[in-house]
Please model this.
Amino acid sequence: MEFLSRSWPQGGAAVITGWLGAMAVSTWLGVASPAGAAEVLQIQLEHLQIPINLRHLERWSQGHPQLSLEADLANGGSDQALWLGLLKPASRRELKLLLRAPLLRDRSFGRQLLDSWAGGQLLGELGELLTTEAGQPTTGQLQTSLRQLLLQQRTVSLIDLLVALPEPQLNLRLDGLLELAAQWRRQLRQQRHALRDLALMGLPQRRAAPLHDKDRPLTHFQRLSLVVPHRPNPLPVEIWASAQPGRAERPWLLLLPGLGGNADQLGWLASALAQRGWTTVALQHPGSDAAALKASLAGQRPPPGAEVLAERLADVKALLAAQRAGGLPVQGDGMVLLGHSLGGVTALLAAGLQPEPGLDRRCGRAVERLPLTNPSLLLQCQLPAAVLPPALPRPAGLRGVVLFNSFGSLLWPERGLRELRVPALLVGGSMDLVTPPLQEQLELFLPVGDPRSRMVLVEGGSHFSPLRLPPGDEALFRLGSDWVGVEPEAVQGLLLGLTSDFLDSLARAGAPGSSQRLLYRGVTAYVLDPAVAARWRGR
Model:
C-alpha cells in the first residue's frame, strides 16, 4: 500500500498524454480505471497476505484528505483501519488522491484505446498484477468492466475499477508493483547521475550568439497537394523557399513530423531555416497526424500507432520521386532528412538504415514489465505485430540526418547508426519522458559511423520542446509543465542555432565544432562528439 501512494510519479496522470503517449503511458493509466462488484483486495508480498475490503476502501477514499487520523480510520472499517493506520499521513492523503483521481476522462477515446494494440498489451500486464482468488490474470475482466463503465460514465478512477471487477476477492501482487517502482526509481536516478556526470566532465563553455533579425520567421510559404499512387487523396506539402536563393551549394531539407503531429507544429523551424538559406519541405501524413488524433479522441477511430510507419515511408518515397522528376519545385545540392520522434525513425528508414533481425525476441524481454520509464518501447514492439517495413534505398545525394527526440533502441541495438554513412545530429532532452535520451539517443549514437556526427542533450528539454502548437492544438494535447520542459522558446532558439551550425558544416564538408557546453538565455545544451559521448557513457 505504501508503494501505491509514495512511488507513483508525481503528477501521475500527467505521464499520460502525447503523441507517442496517446497510446503508450496514456493507455496504461487510462486502463486502470472502471467500476463493479469485487469485495476484497488481497495484497500479496511474498507470503504475506493483507485483506482489504474494497467497499470500505471506497468509502475511506471519499473522505477529505485532511481528515484527522481517528476520523480517517473510522471511515475505513475496523480491519482496514489497522492497515491504513500504518501509512504515514502524507501517504494516506496521496493514496486517496490516487484512488479517486480521474484516470480516464473521455468515454469515446477510452473505447478506442481498448481496441488499440498498446492498450491490449498494457491490459495484459496489469491483469498479471491484479489476479483472481485462484491466481488467474484479470485481463478479460478488466477489459469487460472498463467497457461497461464507459457506457455509464465519462470519468473513471482506480477505485472504480477495483470495485467493478466481477470477483469476490482480488489479489494484488505487491512484489510486482514494487519491482515497477524500483524500475522507475532506477531510471530517474540514472538520469540524474548521468546529467551530473556530464556537467562534471569539464567541457569548454561558450555562450550561443543571440538570434538576429534574419531569424524572424517567414510568413509566406507554398502549400501543395501531391498526388501519390498509394493514397486515395493527395499528400499535404508545405514548401518554405530559401530567402537566400544564391546559396546553390546548400542541400534542401525534408522535415517529418512525429506521430499525431502536423507540419505546422514544426513550421517555426522550417521558416527559420528557410530564412537562413535552406529551402525546407514539411510533409504531413494523413491518418497519423493531428486530425487522426482528434478523431481518436472523439471515438471515431483507434489511435494511430506503429502500423502507420510503412505508409509514412511510402509518402517519403513518393515525395523524393516527385522531386527527382521535377514534380516538386525544390532544388539543392543534395538533401537532408529531419524528423521528430516517429518522424526521426521514418528518416532513418528512409536513409537506408535496415532494422536488425530479432526484434520479436528483444521485445519479449523489453516488455516483460510495463515500460513506465520508456514508453517508446511499446511503439517499437508494435512493429512485429504490424508489418516491419523494410528500409528504403539510401536517397541519392543524402547529405545528413537530423533527429529530434527520436528512438530505436530495439530496432538498432548493436549497430546503432554505424551503417548510416552520413553525418547525424541527435537531439534529446533531460526531461523527455517518452524517448529517454540515455536509452533512445545515446545508445544509437555511440556506434555512429561518421565522426562528424554530434549528439546534443538539452538540460530541461522535453519530448515536445521542438514543437509549437498552433491555436486550438493546446487544448487537444493539454501538455503540463512536466511535458513542455523549461523555457520552450529559449530551447527552440538553441535548437535552431545547433541545427543551423550542423547544416553549415555539411556545406563545408567539415566537422560541426568540438564538444562543448553551450549556454543560451538560461538554457544549457551539451554538444558531444562520438569520443566524448563514449567517455560519458563509460562514467
About this structure: Residues 2-187 form one domain. The chain has two domains: 2-187, 201-538. Confidence is low (pLDDT under 50) at residues 1-37, 474-480.
